[in-house]
Amino acid sequence: MNLEATVMDVAVNLLRQAVTSLPEDVKNALKIAYEKERSQIGKIQLKAILENIEMAEKTNTPICQDTGLISFYLEAGSKFKSLEKVEGILLKAVQRATKEIPLRPNTVNPFTQENPNDNTGKHVPYIHWKIVKGNSLKITAFPKGGGSENTCTLQMMRPADGLRGLKEFVVDCVIKAGGMPCPPTIIGVGIGGGANIAMDLAKQALMKPLGEPNPNEEAAELEHELYEAVNKTEIGPMGLGGDATTLAVKVEYAHRHPASYPVAVAFQCWATRKATATIHVDGKVEYLTHKPLKDFY
Ligand code: SF4
Prior knowledge:
Layout: H1 3-20, H2 24-36, H3 40-59, E1 69-77, H4 86-100, E2 126-132, E3 137-144, H5 146-149, E4 153-157, H6 162-177, E5 185-193, H7 195-205, H8 217-230, E6 246-256, E7 261-268, E8 275-279, E9 285-287
Parallel strand pairs: 1-2, 5-6
Antiparallel strand pairs: 1-3, 3-8, 4-7, 5-7, 8-9
Bound molecules: iron/sulfur cluster (SF4).
């Protein structure tokens, strides 16, 4: 068994799964939104989205032309072999996936505008490490589209603004974003820590499974209140009006400095690309968000 080859194959497979097929929790949320939508134009948009998803799955082609900027979130067992090689393997996996799937080349040098045409570049793919006990490696591929990324916002609020100020800020961000992040969105809210920590938490919140309440009672209540408030804005599917502006609001928090109250709002479009698998020490692979795509295994 060649563990390094397995990491490469799994990373390519996860990118293929992520861009061609949405995970069941997101598909279910979109189907429920379609059933509940009262606006005719909103219903038409959701029907088109559901048909788009079905067609992409049947043809193994990307759900959206923007296949995103690629991040990997890793939970690495401290005893997983070849940990030091993982970053290099993931970089090569992105280059291979760009050709094989194919993915739109989306990385541009901010000074020269040069595009290496393989979805890599400085700090891309972005790799987020969490070292845990054990000898397995859990990989989440998270390609994120530019439209929803452009509406992510960080605000260093005043501690005196409290939860009321936070709620007003989140709804304000949603209104300003309008149709740009391709609603119905998933909204990640990161609270506390420092500026970088709040946005990091907001991004990680986007990866949480839908339909599962937050284990923290106050955070769960806030998620529910924000979900209700955002869906009253009537921005609706693709910003054309309707009930379904968001599928879910997910909150993550950290303790903060007494003088600081950072709040980050991360948007994810309806095309919520995320795919996760665990590679065990014996080379066995467990796909956690998608059924294996048989043609490619
Ligand atoms: S925001 Fe999402 S759905 Fe809209 S164009 Fe970008 S990737 Fe596609």
